Amino acid sequence: MIAFENVGLRYGHGPEILKDLTFTIDPGSFHFLTGPSGSGKTSLLRLLLLSLKPTRGTVSMFGEDVTRLDQDRLLQMRRHIGIVFQEFRLLDHLTTFENVALPLRVRGQSEVSYRANVEELLDWVGLGDRMEAYPSLLSGGEKQRAAIARAVIAKPDILLADEPTGNVDPGLSERLLHLFEELNRMGTTIILATHELGLLDKFGYPRMLLNDGEMIIHE
Amino acid sequence: MSEGIRLGFSRPGPIVPAQSVAGRTLMLLIGIMTFLSCVTFGGVLLVQKSAVGWSADVGREVTVQIRPVDGEVLESNIRLVISLAEAVPGVASAHALSLEESQSLLEPWLGAGLDLSDLSIPRLVIVRLSDPNAADIARLESEISAIAGVSLETHAAWRVQLNTMAGTIVVSGILVLALILVATALAIVFATRGTMSTNREIVDVLHFIGASNRFIAGEFQGRFLMIGLRGGAFGGLAAIGFFIAVGTAMGAVMADPSSAQLGFFFGQFALGFDGLLGIAGVVMVIAGLTAITSRLTVRRFLSQLS
Questions:
Q1: Bridge partners for A3 per DSSP
Q2: pTM greater than 0.95 (yes/no)
Q3: CATH numbers and ranges of domains, chain B
Q4: Residue of B nearest to A148 (CA)
Q5: A107 touches chain B (CB under 8 A)
Q6: Is residue A110 part of a domain?
Q7: ipTM of the predicted structure?
Q8: pLDDT for B72-81, tens place per residue?
């Protein structure tokens, strides 16, 4: 599903942030992406989200070399990928329901067509009674669950999560991880960036360890 | 909405929040620019209408001047000129100004109350044309040239000068209008860039969840089109109010018979139906300019991000 081959990335004329990354991610797998701060985790996630192009090497997703795709095709491919951020990035002027429904709305779907699905998903993540609340009234855990719901509402094939447990307490972190496991069981490929060793140890999924731009994979 | 909770299931909230667009300032700016554009347009229209009116009035008559010449009977020559003129095709009528009327024409230069009976004042025959295009002025000129001391004035030079002056004012007005539109477009570009920078977070989130540049541009363009329409309507209504107020004030001044001459020369300060249509057109042009300029700016901003 995802194949990196000798991928390197640098910003402008700066040093190489990612060096010679070569790995593959199978469909339906679950990987932790870990490493110290500044090791390049977020940059790698941005490559996976197709919001950056590598400065060298090739990145293939869904069987296509994404470095050669035009904007329209990139947009179509990006719609197969969901993203969850550490800082949630919900839009403050929209309700929880509207935030979660946003990916369907930007695809041109009408509210009538998606209302039931969004409500069902919000129930599933435990936000059934917070649908009309604005993000400013949600707790950290609720915001993160809303962000996860927004990332999966359009049924992406790949779900990327950048430190999704960084702003919640340890108990909630585990519950969120179980949520990701549940999504993975339903067939979504998950790459979850975290540097919480406790979670890595408790959930024994393969680890992609980034250090100074280089990667070692522990299966 | 209360305490951050929205009750009921109304239509989804706007993706670009209204308060995040620098709406009021931009709307005021567009309103002022529309007002200036409409006033310029109205002014140009009034000048053009007056010039066309003057030119048509002047073009509908020619003047024959008959100077006293020794050995010629002035009154006889006047009657001859009138009869010759009335026989020319396209001439409606011809009549001579009386001696008193001729003398009164000199009053602005010589002053009133002078005894001009000792002066040999030329006499004028006013020839009114029923159809200026069909009138055979060359034939008239040819026939009266045989009479001693007679000359024909068609006012052509004056009309050319008048049309040139009016044309200069119209061209200047169009130039001013174009400059105002350019300034408006530039202001919209800067306001749009500022808005996009302020809303960068929204743009990023929309990109991440798979929104196309076209979709994002459409969301922002909708906001700017509304601002353009409201600002344009405000400016257009203000301009109509301005013309009504000035027209009313001019009407009050021109109640005085001596001031009515001003009206004759400078025209009435009334736009008419075509003027109102023109102002509506200016409003639509500015609203459209706002929408197009903001869309292009947003698309450019988004393509730079991509």
A1: A24, A60
A2: no
A3: 19-56+159-305 (no CATH), 68-148 (3.30.70)
A4: B209
A5: yes
A6: yes
A7: 0.88
A8: 788 888 888 8
